[in-house]
Amino acid sequence: MPKLEISGFQIHPNVIRQMMFLCILLFMGYLIADGLYFMISSFLGAITFYVILMYPMKYLVIYKRWPSWLAALVLMLISLFVMVIPFIYLTTIAISRLMPVVTNPAIINDVFKTIHDYLLSNYNIDVLNAENIQMLSGHAVPIAQKALGGTFSTIGMIFLMYLILYFMLVDTRKLEHWLNQTLPFKRANVKTIISEIRNLVYSNALGIPIVALIQGFAGVIGYWIFGVEEFLIMGIMTAISSVIPVIGTMTVYLPLAVYQFIVGGSYEGIGVALWGFIVIGGVDNVARFLVQKKLADVHPLITLLGVFLGINLFGFIGLIFGPLLISVFFILLRIYIDEFGKSDEFYKT
Q1: Local confidence pLDDT in tens for the 349 residues of the chain
Q2: Burial class for 138, CB neighbours closer than 10 Å (0-12, 13-18, 19+)
Q3: Do the Cβ atoms of 56 and 75 come closer than 8 Å?
Q4: Domain of 57?
């Protein structure tokens, strides 16, 4: 192939072939990604569980001499009963109790109206007026519908996830070799990517649920003590809200305290508020400190943006995948700058 010359600038035939080849690869990659987009949650879930189960898999295969297929099946079953089934159970409870509220926002509007009437008549506070409630519902309800709606295909997603995970575990050595040979970065940066992604997966897939479960359990106990009628569902909501940075569980127990103060009495309302500030807030600080001391420390803004991104893309499960995607994006950006950033040596080659 002759050289292509444009205004005195020559392009080597190898560059032309390379660009044509990249265009074909990108086009085919787009077709594949578009056709398999429905599997993205399963694929991300498989990667998450692979990172968690990778070292136990190596231990069973290398040190205990188990067949790789048997080790993979045993670890998958353990993860199913320890992590997946409890998660599905809690999610099912949340959906069954929250879906009537999400499909009929008038229920929650009535609750806010009760709080608004009380605050207005006793303290002349006009925050939860009809206009503000309507605006809040207009933003919150679609997010809730997206989160809950994305969970109905959970069984199919989990089946595909475990199917992918099985082959990843069985071919662990081949997969690691392929990554080391394929990723277009320096060996040191490849190790950095693998190490930081592993820490992020631990932080998001283990750290966030652990902190959420501890806070949710603390919430259930307190809400039951102080007479909250739906103490179980409010505990689940407390666990879910714990992923929101800074304000977190306050978005649940503060409105609940006001509502209990109105419908139950001063003892119940003040009790829920104090329990939230002292116990739930204290548990959050202690648990988050202990967990993140061992795991990756994800910036609160990344977590906040990741929650909205994840719910929009994947539904409820996006609470874990969203922050992970944004964190990986910034890791790759940093690696790109290290590999191809401006330097005299780069422009001389």
Answers
A1: 455 555 555 666 777 777 888 888 888 888 887 887 777 878 888 888 888 888 899 899 989 899 999 999 999 999 988 888 887 777 777 667 666 666 666 656 666 667 767 666 776 666 555 565 666 555 555 555 555 555 545 677 788 889 999 998 998 888 877 777 777 777 777 777 777 778 777 777 777 778 888 888 899 999 999 888 878 888 888 887 887 766 778 888 888 888 787 777 778 888 888 998 888 888 877 776 666 666 666 677 777 788 778 777 776 677 777 888 888 888 888 887 877 765 544 444 4
A2: exposed
A3: yes
A4: 39-102+133-182
Task: Kindly state the tokens that stand for 11.
Answer: 């392009």
DSSP 3-state assignment of 249? coil
pTM summary value: 0.69
Residue-level length of the chain: 349
Cα torsion for 205, 208, 212, 215, to the nearest 10°? 140
Q: Which residues pair with 5 in a beta bridge?
A: 10
Q: Are residues 170 and 201 in the same domain?
A: no
Strand ranges (DSSP E) for the chain?
Answer: 4-6, 9-11
The count of domains in the chain is: 3
Assigned domain for 260 exists: yes
Structure tokens at 304: 């906040």
Strands 9-11 and 4-6, by their bridges, are antiparallel
Q: Which of 225, 281, 229 is nearest to 253 (CA)?
A: 281
